[in-house]
Amino acid sequence: MAAKGKKYTHKVFILVPSRLFFVAAAQALKRAVTESERLKPSEDLREVQSTELIIGSIRFFHPLILTQDAAPTPSFSELISNEMDEVDRVISRRLSSEVPLVGEVAKYIISAGGKRIRPALLLLLSGALSYTARQKYEMAAVVEFIHTATLLHDDVVDDSTLRRGRATANVSFGNPASVLVGDFLYSRAFQMMVDCDNMRVMQVLANATNVIAEGEVQQLMNMHDASLTEAGYLEVIRSKTAKLFEASARIPAILAKASPDIEQACAEFGLALGTAFQVIDDVLDYEGESSVLGKNLGDDLREGKTTLPLIFAMQNCSPEEKTLIRNAIEHNEEVNLAPILSILQKTGAMQATKEVAHQQALLAIKAIAPLKDSIYKTVLTQLASQLLLRST
Fold this sequence. Notes:
- 66% of the residues lie in helices and 7% in strands.
- It has 392 residues and is mainly alpha-helical.
- Strand 2 (47-55) and strand 3 (58-68) form a beta hairpin.
- Helix 5 (117-128) packs antiparallel against helix 18 (375-387), helix 6 (135-158) runs antiparallel to helix 10 (230-255) and helix 14 runs antiparallel to helix 15 (319-330).
- The protein starts with 7 loop residues before the first strand and ends in a 5-residue tail after the last helix.
């Protein structure tokens, strides 16, 4: 039995809510209580056990954290707040240009905010690997520049009008300026890579940039293609979105001169996290709120993108409903979103899509198991878990 007078806090993390949430929580809590009774008073109670609970076809991952009056875990933004301020200073300094329009357009999109999850990932893994050199701030700015360049180009290709709650750069400054400033950000990122003077870092980022471009072209080829499969969809998002997550996670391991196994673990974490991130992003295109998302609901369908919710819906709906979805994807017409949303809910397509993201988040959490325990590892695990609950 646990020592009298000692207080134990049982924290249960479930990745995704579902009708089985309370069953899973009860099972996990029961296991936590059993574990606390097993521990002797002399044992260190700061013990973490990670288990999987399978109920029906749903798999839950829940670290059971038993602590003595445990302090709350900080969010990733709280943990690296000062470091992100330093990255912002690097970004501001590196955006300087003798051409005023370059800085104006670049600052317009960067100042719009955003989650900055890629540079945050790089900083968190730097912390997990005890890498403290200032080079991490430069590399965090590099991945943000590459990401921002892709946004500028994407908005031109997709003819988007709203991003992060305000007019896109192509609406405010025109398509030519957006494309050319995107090019500037790419070239500035490569200048900074050279300054890093690390051939492996340059190889990783150069390869990632090339794969992202290929992914964007592949997505363009898939536009208005209602026959796209789940495998084809995942191939595209792993190229255009997850690849930069993978690079952001691999770079700290390279800079810290980590072992090949740890470098691979970091890369796998980034790839799975980035895949889950994009899958949830595609869910939010049908389930989110425009005011929160900062973009128009249903934009993917209007642009002719066949994302995973539509793929799953067409596998499980009636022939008439499938025809309705196919017509919406294949023809550049004003889309009536209401019946499409009804089909997505009725067929369980949204929940099936979330389950794919859930499995990717599980892969991410498992990937960093070899990393030594630290507050950074805990927050990285938390980041993967909470990604499934994001609303923006």
